[in-house]
Amino acid sequence: MHICLLDIDGTLVLTGGAGQTAFSQTLIADFGIADLNTKVAFAGRSDRAIVADLFSDHGIDPSDENWSRFCEGYLSRLDAALHSHKGHVLPGVPGLLEALADRGDIAIGLVTGNVREGARRKLQHFDLWHWFPFGGFGDEYVDRCDIAAAALAAAHSHLGADAKGNGIANGSNSNCEVVVIGDTLHDIRCARSIDARCIAVATGQSTTEELQTCNPDVVLSNLEDIGPVLELFE
Questions:
Q1: What per-residue confidence (pLDDT) applies to 161?
Q2: Are residues 103 and 31 in the same domain?
C-alpha cells in the first residue's frame, strides 16, 4: 500500500487570499494590531509559525492562551472570507484525486500548515474534504518537517486500522512508496525529511525554476498531466 500526502494552498486550491484576510481581521480585531507586518511569509509555512512571527513582530505574548484565542477568532472569520473571495480548485486536482483513489493501493492524506479545522473548512468549501481521511496539520507544530512526520504517522495509523478489512499490513513496509505533492520549497524539504519522493507543482508562488533548485523528483506546471504522478507509484 502506498501513501500520497498533498499540500492544500497553492497545490489543491487557491483561496484568493481568504486565509490571509481572516488572519489579518483576527489580529486587528482581537489583538489590536493596527499596522500588520506584511513581510511575514505565509507560503509553505505552518499557521503556528506564521502566528508566532506576527506575535513576535508586534510584541504579543506567544502563549498557548493567545494561540487558542487567535485560532478561535481566525476560524470564526474564515468561512465568510472564503465566500467573499474568488478562490478555485487548481487544474487537474479532481482528476488526480479520482485516479489515485481508483487504483485502490494508494492512501490519500494531507500534509499542510493549516490548522486541522481550517483545512477542513477550506476543503469543504471546495468540496474536496471527503478525499482525505488523515493528515498532518499546523495546530501543534511550527516546522513543516514535524508536520510531515505527523502526517506519515497518521497514514500508518489509518492503514493499520484498515488492515483487517483490506489486507493491509501497515504503511511502513518495504513495498510502500510515500509521495508528497506540494508547491513550495518547504514541501520538498519536508518530503525529504520523511524519505519520501516529491512532486513539486508550480501552481503557487514558486516558479518551476525555483522549485528545481531543491531537486524534487518531478516538477510540473500543474496537475493536469497525472502520468508523472502515477509513475512514482510503479
A1: 59
A2: no
Residue 166 is predicted with a pLDDT of 42
Q: What are phi and psi of 23, to 5 degrees?
A: -60, -55
Domain range enclosing 27:
18-84
Q: In the numeric block, which cell numbers belong to residue 123?
A: 476543503
Residues 24 and 140 in one domain: no
Strands ordered across the beta sheet of 106-111: 135-136, 106-111, 2-6, 178-182, 197-201, 218-220
Whether 49 and 98 share a structural domain: no
Q: Are residues 97 and 65 in the same domain?
A: no
d(CA 156, CA 58): 40
Instruction: Note the pLDDT of residue 33.
Output: 84
Same domain? For 80 and 68 the reply is: yes
Q: Which of 222, 194, 184, 217 is nearest to 7 (CA)?
A: 184
The residues of the chain scoring below 70 in pLDDT are 37-38, 161-174
